[in-house]
Sequence to fold (143 residues):
Amino acid sequence: MSNKPGILVVDDSRPVLVVVRTMLETFGYSADLVDSGTEALRRLHVRFEEGRPHAAAVLNHTMSPMTGLDVRRAMLANRSFSAVPVILMSTAEAAGGLSAKTRDMFSSVLEKPFAAEALRAAIDSAVAQSHGPAATDNARAQR
Fold:
């Protein structure tokens, strides 16, 4: 079992999952990959029950049948993981249509394609928010 902060990554595109996992592992994080919103909620629950909650989540905006917004709303409705910070990945066009209220549901919104440093900054900020600055220092030390 890894002591690296665990990041849940949810996208229905396998290539995106692989690229994001590679980036996260390079940054010193552990990536937990799922390809649907339903599986994301199940994985959040399992990790919470195991006493190993995710430090953050990265959700794709446009998935079917459950979108990233649907997943975030379900997370917010569940006290077990409502505090998990979430980064939304979206196309520029879709991100531009998000209201300020919707954007406020997420710690960051990344427009695809995004640079590794943009993901790193968003993840480090989210993990510091949920686990404190020492967790990001720990992830950096494990790189």
